[in-house]
Amino acid sequence: MLKAAGHPYEKTAVTAIGFQDLACAETTALVQAWKKWKGWHALPPYSAWRDARLGKFNDFSSIAAVIDDGADYEFEYIGHAHVRAYGVNHQGKRISELTELSPRFGKQLRASYDLVRISGHPHAFQGTIGNDTADARFVSFETVYLPFGGHGSVSHVLNAAVYELRDGLAA
Fold first, then answer.
1. DSSP codes of every residue in 64-127
2. What is the pLDDT of residues 130-155, one digit of tens each?
3. Is the pLDDT of residue 21 over 50?
4. How far apart are CA 79 and CA 52, in angstroms?
5. In total, how many domains does the chain have?
6. Beta strand 13-17 pairing with 72-78
7. Cα(21)–Cα(8) distance, rounded to whole angstroms?
8. How many CB atoms are closer than 10 A to CB 162?
9. Is 64 exposed, middle or buried (0-12, 13-18, 19+ CB in 10 A)?
10. Is residue 5 part of a domain?
């Protein structure tokens, strides 16, 4: 599954990785679907994800719409893996709302979505959650942010992620 071994971890650490470094079948499958939808275009259209039949891989995806050229992002869909990892379903919420409740988390999430929206390119990360974030429900993760849109602008961002839950939490 994930490269992380043993926990608890002392400090939270996140590393940018390339697609070739993905370790999880679920994130890899969603990246492969995104590549297929994209074809020879810079970005796949949002309709490709909306109309896809991803089966169990939907659990590992969430998708957010870009609002007002990146002034905000609204979560249109949140898969079960994300809900288990965070303990809440943010579907229908905006990042600005999350930032009000949890400023640090909201700022980190906005930075990830902004990176993908501005660059128009996918970005992948692996990380471990340390004792400095002891309230997190998971200890490690692998995540990929995949842009959708057309005519040179990103309209949606798909987040494909796998989380290793803390001991004692149901998978």
1. EEEEGGGTEEEEEEE-HHHHHHHSS--TT-BHHHHHHH-HHHHHHHHHHHHHHHHH-S-EEEEE
2. 777 767 788 889 999 999 999 889 99
3. yes
4. 14
5. 1
6. unpaired
7. 23
8. 25
9. buried
10. no
What are the CA-CA distances from residue 78 to residues 5, 12, 27, 49, 118 (Å)?
27, 24, 15, 13, 22
Q: Which domain CATH number covers 27?
A: 3.30.450.20
Could you tell me the residue range of the domain that residue 92 belongs to?
13-165
Identify the pLDDT of residue 171. 53
Query: Does residue 22 lie within any of the structural domains?
Result: yes
Mean of the per-residue pLDDT values of the chain: 90
Per-residue tokens: 118:
């501005």
**Residue 62 token pair:** 């969430």
Cis peptide bond upstream of 8, omega within 30: yes
In a domain, 7, yes or no: no
